Every structure is written in structure tokens, then in C-alpha cells.
DNA sequence: CCTATGACTGGTC
DNA sequence: TGACCAGCCATAG
């Protein structure tokens, strides 16, 4: 597992996020261990939109999708999350108490 | 090898 | 979870 690039480790954690749930960059970074939220954001930034990683479920600590570079993409992310059943409030934020990921399950 | 860059976080008011 | 300040560390050229 340590032989795997940090990127793939981050992707592995993101793939573990169940549908209808969202996690923060810090959450992912803590689960990966040895990397910070910026590493997660940068790793996801390098991900293609058609990747097998549900990067859309990764948002910032404010409960909102990141502005991303360029501006577009964040709208797509919100759209994908809504398709998963995640509700956004009038301020474009999600309810951590409702869709907050508790982690890779305690099994 | 060194430099630049980046989808962030945390504590405080 | 509003806003502000400074730090963090891996990846690419």
C-alpha cells in the first residue's frame, strides 16, 4: 500500500465514499495519512472528469463545492451531487449532518 | 536539483 | 460556518 503513489491512495479513499455522502479534503487527507488537504485538492485537480473516482463527493470544509480553476466544473459537481440525492440549501451548501461521511465504515 | 503552483485547513473575532 | 492570516507538502517542468 505504501508503494502506491500518494495520488492513488487519495483516489482509493475517495472511491470509498458511499453514494449520497460527501467528505471534506481534510477528511480525505486524514484518512490517507501523511498528506494535507492541499495534496488532496491538487490530486483531484489532476483527475479527468470521466475518471472512475467520485471526486464530486469531495468538498471543502465550508460544506460547499470548491470554486475550481476556471469557474466551470463546480456547477457540474453540484449537479452530480444533487443527482445522488444530496440537497443544497439556498446558499449552495450541503448539510454535513445529513450527507457528512463518517469515514470508511467502522467494519 | 530548484522553482512555482495548487479543487485547503485551522484558530480567532 | 462569515472573514482574515499563514502554513502545509507533493507534483511537474
Describe the structure.
By secondary structure, the chain is mainly alpha-helical. The chain has one domain: Orthogonal Bundle (Arc Repressor Mutant, subunit A). Helix content is 38%, strand content 4%. It has 5 helices and 2 strands, in the order αβααβαα. A two-stranded parallel ribbon has the order 1-2. The longest helix is centred in the N-terminal third of the chain and has 10 residues. The two termini are 19 Å apart. The model has no long low-confidence stretch (mean pLDDT 88).
What is this structure's SSE topology?
Blueprint: H1 6-15, E1 23-24, H2 25-32, H3 37-45, E2 58-59, H4 74-83, H5 96-99
Parallel strand pairs: 1-2
This protein binds a DNA duplex (13 and 13 nucleotides) through helix 2, helix 3 and strand 2.
Intertermini distance: 19 Å
Topology pattern, helix = H, strand = E? HEHHEHH
Computed Rg:
13 Å
| β-sheet strand percentage | under 5%
- The largest beta-sheet arranges its strands as 1-2
Report the CATH architecture.
Orthogonal Bundle
Taken together, the total number of domains comes to 1
Question: What's the CATH H-level homologous superfamily?
Answer: Winged helix-like DNA-binding domain superfamily/Winged helix DNA-binding domain
Amino acid at each position: 500500500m505504501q508503494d502506491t503513489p500518494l495520488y492513488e491512495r487519495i483516489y482509493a479513499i475517495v472511491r470509498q465514499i458511499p453514494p449520497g455522502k460527501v467528505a471534506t479534503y481534510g477528511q480525505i487527507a486524514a484518512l490517507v495519512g501523511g498528506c494535507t488537504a492541499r495534496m488532496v485538492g491538487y490530486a483531484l485537480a489532476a483527475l479527468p472528469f470521466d475518471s472512475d473516482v467520485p471526486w464530486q463527493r469531495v468538498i471543502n470544509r465550508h460544506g460547499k463545492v470548491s470554486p475550481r480553476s476556471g469557474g466551470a466544473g463546480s456547477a457540474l459537481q453540484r449537479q452530480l451531487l444533487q443527482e445522488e440525492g444530496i440537497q443544497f440549501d439556498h446558499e449552495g451548501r450541503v448539510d454535513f449532518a445529513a450527507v457528512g461521511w463518517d469515514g470508511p465504515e467502522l467494519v
